[in-house]
Fold this sequence. Notes:
B: mainly alpha; 16 helices; 2 strands; globular; C: mainly alpha
Amino acid sequence: MLDKVIFYVFGGIAVVSAALVVTRRNAVHSAVFLITALLATAGIFLQLRAEFLFVVQIILYVGGIMVLFVFVIMLVNLDVALQQIQFSRQKWVALLVTLALAGQVGAMLWWAGQPGKKTLPLPVSVAAPAEKLPANAEAVAHSLFGPYLLPFEIASLLLLVAMIGAVVMAKKKV
Amino acid sequence: MPAALQATLEFLRAYAGPLIASLVIVAVLPLIAGYVVLVERKVMADMQARLGPMRVGPHGLLQPIADAVKLLLKEDIIPEKADFWIFWLAPLVSVTAAMLSMAALAFGPAFQIARDINVGILFVVGISSLGIFGIVLGGWASNSHYSLIGALRSAAQLVSYETAAGMALVSGLLLGGSLQIRTIVEEQARQGVWFIFLAPVAFFIYMVASIAETNRAPFDLPEAESELVAGYMTEYSGFRWSLYFLAEYANMIVVASVATTLFLGGWMRPFASVRWMGWVDFLPPLLALGVAGYCVYRAPRQPVPVQKLVMLGVAGLCALVALLLAVPLLLPAAFFLKAGIHGAFWFVAKVGAYIFVFMWLRFTLPRYRFDQLMRLGWYFLIPVSIVNVMALGVGLVLHWQYRVNLWLALGGTTLLTLLIALWLVWADRKREAEALQARGGPGTPAADSYAG
Amino acid sequence: MLSVNHYLFLSLALFTIGVIGVLTRRNVIVILMSIELILNAVNINLVAFSRLFGDVAGQVFAIFIVTDAAAEAAVGLGIIIAFFRNRETVLADEMDLLKW
């Protein structure tokens, strides 16, 4: 029961604030709602007992990437932009196509989730006591530095490239 | 409805203790912050050969309460052109982040709100770094240039210094071998040494970076009053302003607690593993007793009768604390209380010492210029912290795999780190001298204050 | 009892909103933020399945996705700043120099 309440509270916050991210006129407001959505997602991670990912989400996503976003929004703060049209010309077509796609996927998930089907009625064992689980940070570390060591190194290379790219892009004179 | 009730009950049964503890923190923290401010003003006054606040209560002891009343009664102004909701929200974000991060801190072996958090220290660091949004959004929402520049400075400063602080934390975590706060402190107890002695460079880097992160002098560029009025707080007044103030001091307590946990042995008393140093246990009650005696001695010299009474009351309070600290030592039946009470005392003492160093630096060092701040962060602290992590890793591998003496291995790698740091300083000096020559003699340096 | 379907539907909702944002907004910064929403939706899926199968591999992948998001945000915002410096706009449909 408690699990359900937590899920619906965090999920509801995430969906509502995601919708507000897309519809707000002011980019700073969008950023604020995106932060809310990301924090709600972090709550979902915590409910799924992914503690390390919860902290990664907060430190990296909210504390790192979003600070960067807010910083850039303030650097390019344009009062003119607030008066302009916020949505592009293809908005209705895009909306229709996206909703149709979402409807299809949703219907597939719904039918697969019905009792009687053998495909997907898989209970997530969130109700399992957390004490029974192995310590999350250690488990992630063993996985990350064991079988996934090569992807890890490639990710660090990617970050290095991105850093150099960002520096080159933001330089005044190349 | 019964379902909701059932969920509430289920929630309360599991989390009633932590809820009450967090309520206590929320209620008591403003008072503590107020008294930290009073101590800061007294320290400042002492360093400047003044008396400091003396009017409200004996020796200004009731000054924080007077300040709080003043701030609460002040008019709360929201500028007309401000972004109302974000202006309203921003101080709350700062305070909430600072207070929430305290949930995972362990103020003693028995005082921890979130008991078994697996990623404790990262939780503290991550949540407290959310406070930056309060500053940035507040500065932006004020719709004032001073506020906006303060906010941008603050964002740039925090992003720059968080990297160095994180790397310094990694050094401590390598030694501790866990992310759980309790395990880290117990590991220091087991090894019989505070990690500050094993990783002094990391502690130094963390200290500098934490000063920058809490926007304290000499890195208080975001609220430099000679340049930006009050930085991001310019348009705030009354209660909202005091929330920012509270957040700043709560953040100081948080970074001090993290440093204490990771580098200063948490709630362990000094020389906990040395047998013949057991008499250190008797220092806390004697100290409290000494303070009580001094208060009694000063009481007759107060000018007003009420102040005499207040002074005696303070003396009584100190005597009570002394009693509380002495009971587990004198009564064998109450010995099980010793770890909790004395642990909390030593933790608070260490946090106090760390914050005192903050104050000391604030009144000693002049403020940095913004490009100097960025240069210090990016050209010195971050490279040194990265080198330090690598050197520490090498030292630990030498110790674990090749059975080299721990002190020898870590001492050697620390020396190496220091040499590289010296080389960095030398290279920076040289670069600056060359730049000066290229411009043709001494003069003001180029003013690209956002370089880096 | 929560099933993995709950998480899949939540993820689907966030994903859809993100795609709508990418396709309909003009402001490039908001488009980038919508991409972050999409990546987050994927993360929810991965973590839910990781919990379902009791295998941390899903969480490891989510960490890689967060890394990727960091790289993407850094480069993307760098491009936006460079573009803003040259053209004084952040609107996607005014970025049309290559269409000439």
